[in-house]
Amino acid sequence: MNLYVQPAGPIQTNAYLLTAPERGEAVLIDAPGGIWAQIQPLLAKDNCELSELWLTHGHWDHTQGAAEVVRETDAVVRAHPDDQVLIETPEVMSAFLDGRIKLEPVRVDHWVTAEIVLDALGLEWEVRHVPGHCPGNILFYSAVAQSAFVGDALFRGSIGRTDLPGGDFGQLEAAIRQQIYSLPDETKVYPGHGPATSVGAERTTNPYVHD
Fold first, then answer.
1. Apex 95 CA angle, 90 and 101, nearest 5
2. Who's near 139: CB < 8 A, 6+ residues apart?
């Protein structure tokens, strides 16, 4: 499996393109604005079709490019139902953007909840619910790949904002402890912004949530 980290959009939100050239299959995790133009040549290079688009949560910077991706591919879109309003009626976020950024609704094919296991790229991916930054924030974890894509729940040395609508620090702290820090220490953590980290590093040194 190949992993391409592709920051995109106005605030450089991380999108993650996972490709399995031997299967001709690819998965995109999150879709910031302009992401299609960035991943199209990577898909062509690896001779892969985009089969899945997984949204970690419904905030605009993670979904701005999703409608374009859906138009250009046959990707199946998956997200958590607690963010249905944000994803299907993104105009509710326009008040925070001063009308500067165009948002389109996204068609979600399958609403996924905690403990669902997805099969993609020849691997099993566990879905875990990590609310507190956003009600529907989820992570996608592969034990074989030793990787967790966590959205905006946890960053290197930081955590997701909890001052936005639907945010709750206590809820986020509990979710990080229960759903992220319960993963093996060597698990690579891929956040929605900034560099990757690991479960062990954050569990012991994160200034906001640590042992």
1. 65
2. 56, 127, 128, 130, 148, 149, 150, 151, 153, 179, 180
pLDDT tens across 31-56, in order?
999 999 999 999 999 999 999 999 99
Residue 102 pLDDT greater than 90, yes or no: no
Label residue 88 by pLDDT band (50, 70, 90).
very high
Give 8-31 pLDDT, tens digit per residue.
999 999 999 999 999 999 999 999
Question: Strands 76-79 and 110-111, how do they pair?
Answer: parallel
User: Residue 99 pLDDT more than 70?
Assistant: no
Question: What domains are there in the chain, each with its CATH number?
Answer: 2-205 (3.60.15.10)
